[in-house]
From TrEMBL, chains A, B:
Top EC group: transferase
S-adenosyl-L-methionine recorded as keyword: yes
EC numbers on record: 2.1.1.193
Protein name: Ribosomal RNA small subunit methyltransferase E
Compartments where found: Cytoplasm
Taxonomy of the source species: Bacteria, Bacillati, Bacillota, Bacilli, Bacillales
Residue span(s) of domain Ribosomal RNA small subunit methyltransferase E methyltransferase: 85-250
Main location group: cytoplasm
Domain Ribosomal RNA small subunit methyltransferase E PUA-like: 34-70
Function: Specifically methylates the N3 position of the uracil ring of uridine 1498 (m3U1498) in 16S rRNA. Acts on the fully assembled 30S ribosomal subunit.
Family to which this protein belongs: Belongs to the RNA methyltransferase RsmE family.
Catalytic activity: uridine(1498) in 16S rRNA + S-adenosyl-L-methionine = N(3)-methyluridine(1498) in 16S rRNA + S-adenosyl-L-homocysteine + H(+)
InterPro entries membership: Alpha/beta_knot_MTases, PUA-like_sf, RsmE, RsmE_MTase_dom, RsmE_PUA-like, tRNA_m1G_MTases_N
Keywords tagged on the record: Cytoplasm, Methyltransferase, rRNA processing, S-adenosyl-L-methionine, Transferase
Length: 254, 254
């Protein structure tokens, strides 16, 4: 670590990019069209300037610009030792939220280490979109997520997709399914802290959060075989609850 | 608890107001001008309708409307058993942030249990305000904080004020002073989790967060006798760091 603050002290932190390619030290590669634009027009990089590139194997390389003309050529110089990913994979299940709240939530949740996002159809969802609008939204969300991944120095860019309603979700691939719900007589809630003790490194967790109006009775019934989790004694807004959970998980495991 | 979700399921949760008066069961009181407006024009309350009122001793009463004319008269019916306040008092020290980020931060930090906010002058602060604008800002911030306190069902409304630069801060009244900084050779950082083990219920904590560009060297030097705390391995934006800390503290203590 270079002693910089947590937040983007641009003067102090290294610009970060992502590629699906696998890089090797010394082997020159050509930057993608998007990165070329950013390198030339935003960063105004010139030969000799340095940046970080995370490759398709989630290794981070310190790279230098070797030439910056029509295309930008770069050379990986050394491997960067870092472990920015949460040791458990958290997929955040959340319906769309009103206004900019969903944008804000996915940006913050990406900073806080979410592994993926699944946007489900909640019974009380206020926002409904047709297929065409959904595709456009995914493009916009991926831009937010990608930028937040670069800024927070992650090695993994979370994926985001639309999924069906709660009772039709396929959750079998997860080691744990948790949902943020205060509980009632038939589904008493556990505290998050207690629940975290049962998780192990590498576990895949689906964490399901409700819309502004909360889960419907049918949804809590459909989720009743899973673990309902209390997120403290205050009432959190829909967009705050995932951030609380991810922060607590990070503080416990990292 | 009534089995409602964490977020404002308006149909399911009780409207909450605050008063500096001390209430007693059975003793009728008159709602304030602001609350009267909200009760009549937003909630459309009529005699017999119920709400929660937190009084000057931070006791929460279930109340009913007894008459709703020019003024609204209310009767406390019973004390509500609840403990929505963090067991440690966290004062969030943070400079103003660009655009709507500061508004977002104080809203979320209020939901997450912050006790107070102190806006300090950071060396790298981007936003600077004169005295008149500061007074207007405090009014706006108090509105955000008050609404977030009501919505999240708190018993305490955090205060907010402008304070001087880091090296002139009076921090003697606090039991612990923490600052969110990754550390360097002269001020190695502790993990938040380790640090939380040293806190006891009732402790007063100043938690100092930097601006977008991070602390200056002079600031980290001025803070070097206090505890620098790492907030996980990812780079959090300035407005995210306080939310991470408060969430982790809540998950540990509540």
């Amino acid at each position: 670590m270079d002693g910089s603050a947590f937040w983007p002290g641009k003067r102090e932190t290294m610009q970060r990019y992502f590629t699906d390619e696998k890089l090797s030290i010394g082997e020159i590669f050509t930057a993608s069209a998007d990165d070329t634009h950013h390198m030339k027009n935003v960063m105004r990089f010139r030969p000799g300037d340095a940046f970080h590139m995370v490759d398709g194997s989630r290794h981070t390389f310190l790279c230098e610009i070797t030439s910056a003309g029509e295309t930008v050529e770069c050379r990986p110089l050394e491997l960067v030792e870092e472990a920015p990913e949460l040791p458990v994979d958290i997929t955040v299940y959340c319906p769309l939220l009103k206004g900019e709240k969903f944008d804000w939530m996915i940006q913050k949740a990406t900073e806080l280490g979410a592994h993926a996002f699944s946007i489900y159809d909640a019974d009380r969802s206020i926002v409904k979109l047709d297929e065409k609008k959904r595709r456009k939204r995914i493009e916009r969300y991926m831009k937010i997520i990608r930028e937040a991944s670069e800024q927070s120095r992650r090695q993994h860019i979370p994926e985001i997709d639309f999924v069906p309603a709660v009772k039709e979700l396929s959750l079998d691939a997860f080691d744990h399914v948790l949902f943020a719900y205060e509980g009632n007589a038939s589904t008493p809630a556990a505290s998050l802290n207690e629940t975290l003790q049962a998780l192990s490194g590498g576990d895949r967790i689906a964490f399901i959060f409700g819309p502004e109006g909360g889960f419907s009775e049918a949804e809590t019934e459909a989720l009743s075989s899973h673990n309902s989790i209390r997120l403290g004694p205050r009432i959190l807004r829909a967009e705050t609850a995932p951030l609380y959970a991810l922060s607590a998980i990070s503080a416990t495991f990292e």
